[in-house]
Amino acid sequence: MNYKDLDIKRSYISRGNNNIAEAFLIPALKFTKIYKRSVGFFSSGVLELILDGIVVMVRNNGIIQLIASPKLNEEDINAINLGYKMRKDMIYDYFTRDFLMEVEKLNDNKLRMLCELISRGVLDIKIAITNDEGMYHDKLGILRDFDNNTIVFYGSSNSSYGGYRSNYEKIRVVKGWDEGNKEIIIEEELEFDTLWKGKNEFVEVYQYSETAKLNLLEVIKKRKNSQKDKKTIELRDYQEQAIKAWVDNDYHGFYVMATGTGKTWTAIYSTVELMKNHSPIVVICAPYKHLIKQWAEDVEKTFINGKIIMVSSENPGWEKQIMNEIIRKKYNSDMQLIIISTIASFNMDRFINLINKSDNDKLLIVDEAHRFTNRSERLHEIFDYMLGLSATPYSGSSAEKGRELMKFFGGQVFNLPIETALQKGFLVHYYYKPIFVNSTDYEEKKFNEQSMKIASCFKNNICINPDLLVKSLRNRLRIISMSEEKQSRIDEIINEINDPDHFVVYCGDGRLFDNNSGEEIRHIQSIKRVLTDHGFKTSQFTAKENMDERMQLVDSFNKGEISSLVAIRCLDEGINIPSIKSALILSSNDDYREFVQRRGRILRTYEGKKNATIYDVIVLPSSDMCQWAKIELRRFLEYGRLALNWNDLEIKLNDVIKEYNIKIEDIDVYDYEDILGDEDE
Length: 681
Hints:
Residues 499-657 form the Helicase C-terminal domain. This is DNA repair helicase. The chain crosses the membrane at residues 39-58. It comes from Clostridium taeniosporum. It is a single chain. This protein is an alpha/beta fold. The protein is built from 27 helices and 25 strands. The strands form five sheets. Strands 1-7-6-5-2-3-4-8 form an eight-stranded mixed sheet, sandwiched between helices. Strands 11-12-10-13-14-9-15 form a seven-stranded parallel sheet, with helices on both faces. The chain is elongated and about 115 Å long.
């Protein structure tokens, strides 16, 4: 059979029994070798109406050539003409905008089918746009069967659901085998083929099939991730309360939320709430590259059509990318532009100046905001909305600095302390198990030498030598961190670990002598070897691993493919590894914020995780070394006071502090962070 066996009429309308899809196109497609279609606009929703015909056509190895145009309004056309250097990219973006909007309407089966058509070369798509300010708006269809019979149809119908079913549309049909129609067929085929080959002097044509396939695969992937992570992004009552408080505060404010209670998702859905009434450019800052990667993954799950740009040393093209998107957003205010930057990159003048080129509203979100030192009033002029996030805006006794930080963002609008998070079950409960080792006389001597240098840095309670102070404070902490007995008893310490999987070890940043190699090696390398000797499948997590490597390590750890991770400081802030069951602290700063961040990292909820355990190696000095004792016992008090076994720990702690003739209230936290600053790891 061929077209001649069909009862093909001279015209069809989109109504009644004589409708375009069911009466004409579907029957014809079942005998079609090649279907050439040029339309003003294309909607993938048409697949639902002509699916029967396409399925048969695919079985017969037929192909479809489609030429379509983006739906350009006057602003779009002006943007293309103004940005002629980026003309092709902008045309692609406008067509993609419409294409994605349409394919999102398809169910999963239709979506996969469309992707399969393109992947197998059955459907080939090209974009057409005129060289002047007008739009390409031709509506032509050409069908040829396996006996080379040809049909041409043209008229008001686009390849859309509305064109075939909803709207009142009419097409006229020309049958090539009827007398007098041969010249019409030749003329229309020549017109189409000229367009398809890009030889029409009035119209530019761009290949789009590969881009369409990539976009479809991305939509399919996002749908799968969205379904997989649906439970993850269901907001708790307290997150809804936080968002409402921020909105009520004119989209300004600070969330103080214990580590592990969902600051990231609360911030993302705060953005969702803002976007219900506004369309800002969103700028998100975080301290580390692996954190901005993690933010990007979470943001992508929510803003599936958003344009996300990551700004760090690993993306040297970020300036051009941002500039291009700022231009596009100027002419498409509904476009979602989300820029995720390290704090270091954000602080560069060229970044701020670039963001300031946009006239759009802007939202600034800062994660781990206690590390955000750029509190220039200029930022209040640039950003219309602000949100700060931190579990630890206060550092020990420094309440004033925390208040100043939160005031910059608009004041504290929500507070969820760790005590409440534990009580409500937002974090798992934990056991704290201190492991005591002793200092040596040599270590105590070196500690006292550094203490004397620290004292010499002050005159009348004013620091007169900040450089020496920083160096001496770090050296004193390193003496404790690299205590000899920690190394000599490491096998005994590892043997005390009851949970050999999903285990994290915090190491020092110093070096020690390796008996096997006869050389000095980093502490983290030594511990990695020890863990391997004890049967752990371990990897290190440091600043040396790039962003992708770190995220792969996290994924392998969560899946149980790696049983332990060794780190220095990269695991302290922001990184999401909820499967951690236990941690060993071999090294720690005298920093309240570090205590809190590490504990929150360990206490995140995870399927099958009932509680967690913190093993902490505490170096006890001689009874006259009160300063040293306070540094180590502060951590004991902070970790112990909320632990499940606090009753026993309190007795043990009281016994220890008596030996140093100090009291519980003497165990305070110095605010050293602003003195020490950020370190590489």
